[in-house]
């Protein structure tokens, strides 16, 4: 039996990158033909010329808030006149409609996302396989089956592997214990916290659940302490990182060393609030271009922070890796009654290329806020600092102190705005 779900997981990294980027022009061309919002995003760009990551970086990032705004505007009749009903419902981003879509789901907003009838549409079969799931097993699925796609994500992946699924869903803990005892599933999919609740309830009831040997978790943090807790009960738990917009983006392997990026996406790390990729090793926002022909999102900003990890995974998989979820990129805050956004800080850096990195620190107490922009600069004088202060005032409508710091001294945590005010 193969060590990998597909042999290409261990392919030469350079060849994989070339193959992935070679698929990009055709994917963008199809997206423009069937998804009006993508055509608008790529307007004025020769998609046939997009053949490198540098070319891709010319395309503006679309963030989740913009996806929601587009859907709301079209649903309310403010935009998208002349488009089919389904195009308006999905904000012009979906390439499929009713009939082609097997299901439609809703995320908070609400944002509606389609699921097509393609096998393993969400791409989680790869992560299930890496977690040890195999054909012929029963998978006990405790993700929700209503509104959000998490339940379907795991079910379609398990079916792609040749597994049978029990749709446990959420809640009804005692019934979950009974069903697991009766059915003896080999593995669990769901959140780690819910499996912990089930196992603790089983202890309380005096019911043994020895069949569970593996688990694939998503939807919340899976710290080493919890990994150890499950391991002590004979359950090997792994995590996968995904979203309702993009499906599975990265997954944990037996190496326990970061998350390996999915084979069919192009993942970038960009400076929060900007379109610009960061330097290798710098924390930033996860931005994904998916080659999904049904829901072809291009440079979609997840709003999550992470960092690329160097080298090849010890498990033998050769794709790039990310450290995992490291916080949220949208650090928007309110200062003196005005919202301040990471994009405004990014605009300051664009105006002043001598700034290598910046961090806007908000301190003081509510009602007496103090705003300071810490800037990494090699050389500076009062005149240069005054120009930076002027840009901050112009872009944010707020005054800020400019504090020069040594290059490389700001934390590598992806924070562009750091709110340290005392709210007591």
TrEMBL record:
InterPro entries in UniProt: AMP-bd_C_sf, AMP-dep_synth/lig_dom, ANL_N_sf
The organism of origin for this protein: Pollutimonas harenae
Coiled-coil regions listed: none
Transmembrane parts of this sequence: none
PANTHER family: BLR5969 PROTEIN
Name of the molecule in the record: AMP-binding protein
Sequence ranges assigned to domain AMP-dependent synthetase/ligase in this UniProt record: 137-289
Signal sequence region: none
